[in-house]
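Changelog note: in this version the structure field was regenerated for every chain. One regenerated record is shown below for reference.
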Amino acid sequence: MTAADRQKRLDELAQDIIEKEVCADLKAQATQLVMGEGNPSATIVFIGEAPGKNEDIQGIPFVGAAGKFLNVMLEQAGMERSDVYITNIVKYRPPNNRDPLPAEKAAFLPYLLRQLAIIQPKVVITLGRHSMEYFLPGAKIGDMHGEAVNVVIENHEFMVMPLYHPAAALYNGGLRQTLIDDFLKVPELVKTLSI
């Protein structure tokens, strides 16, 4: 499947979310759906929790302060945003940037799975505990960060590496280097899967 075909299917998936009014309460107070951005044929997909204020305005994930830090880490790891795909579990901004509710995450999870089935990445990088919990239920991010784990969900197999959310490193300086160190493992992981 070409990148253009994948992008068309991602656009159709976004339209499906809008038409089915997934999380209508969230939709009503959000500016727009924030589906994702990047290479629709990416080897690596980054998954955060939900859009924030800047993401809601621009319609692009990770464009605020956490996104700037994500860009820095991508650069340090020899990657660009255009090489990877970036999305969130929940596609509408929760009011006042509150954490997404379990019901909101559950409503969007089938669409996230469809998104991943279209892109077919080799590696899924979860950013923060909300996206990690879906792939590794019951795991603690403090124990799992930077460790690659093979996961099968609904007949889809993923190599998952949980990382701390970039926003956490902005609030907790001690996590900054940990996140950078973990991030630098990503290209090596991709290489081992490509052999």
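Spot check on this record: The chain has one domain: 3-190. The chain has ten helices and six strands.
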